[in-house]
Amino acid sequence: MDFEGIVPDWFKSFVDMGNTLLWGDFLIGLLILAGLYFSISSRFVQFRWFKEMFKVITEKAETLPDGRKGIAPFQAFAISAASRVGTGNIAGVATAIVLGGPGAIFWMWMIAFFGAATAFFESTLAQVYKVKDREGGFRGGPAYYMEKGLNQRWLGLFFAVLITITFAFVFNGLQANTIAHAYEEAFNLDRWVVGIVIAAFTAIVIFGGARRIASVAGYIVPVMAVIYLLVVFVILIINYDQIIPMLSAIVTNAFGIREVFGGALGAAILNGFQRGLFSNEAGMGSAPNAAASAAVSHPVKQGLIQALGVFFDTMIVCTATAILILMYTDLSYGADALQGIQVTQAAMTEQIGSFGAIFIAIVILLFAYSSILGNYFYGQSNLNYIRENRVLLLVFKALVVVMVFIGAVMDLETAWATADMFMALMAVTNLVAVFGLSNVVWQVAADYKAQLKMGRNPVFETNNIKADLTEVDEWGENRYAQRGDGRS
Question: What are the φ and ψ backbone dihedral angles of 348, each rounded to 5 degrees?
Fold first, then answer.
């Protein structure tokens, strides 16, 4: 069946124009400015509290009013990792290298290092301004701190609509597209068949509720990441003599010292930033939705955990994939070269034989499917912000399932271009809000540090903060108790 014309030409032209406007010097400059500002103003929190990140991720969730345990810090980390670790880490890295050269990986590292500070700020804010949900847990994110922190509900509504469309529909379509291409390459399966299967399994999970999503993601993400990384690390050990040349190629190409094709310096920066942002999501405003769901004693704890998630995604998973691809002897560069998941499959096949393409197909199924679950969680959280309505939610779930199928059968270039445009719009909107509320994060972080110095397990009290937190309801002495006014 031929589905290549499923997306109209006018939409493709609109997306190309949007990317030209957003992904010029403007967004790249904004991402650099944000990373520098949040890093310097926090005295490089992503480095200074690196050890603390591993301490807080192992903490248990606090008890909710109904006696159940809330979503634990690690589960919230897994939800965000489920969205982060996916297509971007396997297909996205391949596309970045093919279009930007080895140097694109260096710029992915840069956006991850500085982006970790941005992730700390946005996720801390998400915890500060979170609210209770109908399931007895919590939800939050940029829409909530735009309304409660900046007193700009219109901006919160705009962002909520944007992230709902971006993650639940556009990004989920891209994840399904990558799975379908991988199985077409490995097993010669028609993409529409793969799309139906993915859509069916997606429906089974998302109609089970957010807690099931957290549970499924908590199992899938660690297992899939460990298996994939072990295989790549074994390949790296076997080819240890190529490590230094590969690292050299990444650095020299990053600054145009040794270009692999015309215009490689600009292409390296652009593709490194685009694929880096898609992969680690720092500053995009997506991970804060998962951060807000955790039941922790202090907002800074989730800020640190989400910063760690950026490092895990880019420095470990993306780098492992990049090394594998750069060892591929038939690697070609440029817009006309083989791109996406098929490059990674070819590289793995060269290393471990014909099973390589099948192995990558299995891995991308787990990576991308867990991303679909994480993406849906973000969409549902923001849909509830716009309006809580059971019928609307059921329609939304059905549309998500339909979009998973459509994404599986659409062409690769359109899928990536659409994702680039929507994540750029999200990043611009979110960063404006985080800049405006940065003083709140400074004060909350200072409170956390002061309690650590006293040898205490930090517990957040709004009256310890000078910033106006009158709109914050979920913190204080009875932060996880039922309210007497009947609100939930």
Answer: -70, -40
Condensed to tens digits (0 to 9), the pLDDT of residues 27-48 reads 778 888 888 999 999 999 998 9
DSSP letter (8 states) at residue 136: S
What 3-state DSSP class applies to 67?
Answer: coil
In Å, what is the CA distance from 284 to each residue of 222, 252, 287, 411, 422? 23, 29, 8, 25, 10
**CA count, 13 A, side-chain hemisphere, 35:** 24
Rounded CA-CA distance 98/117 in Å is: 29
- Position 8 confidence tier, pLDDT thresholds 50, 70, 90: confident
> Which residues 6+ apart lie within 8 Å of 320 measured at CB?
228, 229, 232, 233, 236
Q: Cα 166 from chain centroid?
A: 12
Distance (Å, rounded) from C-alpha 377 to C-alpha 383? 10
Q: Which of 422, 424, 417 is nearest to 22 (CA)?
A: 424
Question: In which band, very low, low, confident or very high, does the pLDDT at 442 lie, cut at 50, 70 and 90?
Answer: very high
The neighbouring-strand residues paired with 71 are 294
| Radius of gyration, CA atoms only, the chain | 22
As given in the structure block, the two tokens for residue 247 are: 């690292």
Q: Is the pLDDT of residue 18 over 60?
A: yes
191/206 Cα distance (integer angstroms): 22
Q: pLDDT tens for residues 112-122? A: 898 899 999 99
pLDDT tens, position by position, 292-324: 877 788 999 989 988 988 888 888 888 888 888
**pLDDT given at position 488:** 33
Asked if residue 119 lies in contact with residue 306, where contact means CB atoms within 8 angstroms, the answer is yes
pLDDT band at 483 (very low <50, low <70, confident <90, very high): very low
DSSP assignment string, 327-371: T-TT---STTS--THHHHHHHHHHHH-THHHHHHHHHHHHHHHHH
pLDDT digits (tens, 9 = 90+) for 333-351: 877 777 778 888 899 999 9
Best CA proximity match to 146, nearest among 450, 435, 343, 464: 435
**Cβ atoms 165, 456 nearer than 8 A:** no
- Own/partner contacts of 6-9, CB < 8 Å, gap of 24 or more, are 6/406, 6/409, 6/410, 7/410, 7/411, 7/414
Residues 200, 291: contact at Cβ < 8 Å?
Answer: no
62, 70 contact by CB (below 8 A): yes
Cα dihedral 429/430/435/438 (nearest 10): 160
Residue 449, pLDDT score: 93
What beta strand segments (E) does 140-278 contain? none
* Helix (H/G/I), strand (E/B), else coil: 29: helix
| Dihedral, CA of residue 6, residue 11, residue 13 and residue 17, to nearest 10 | -140
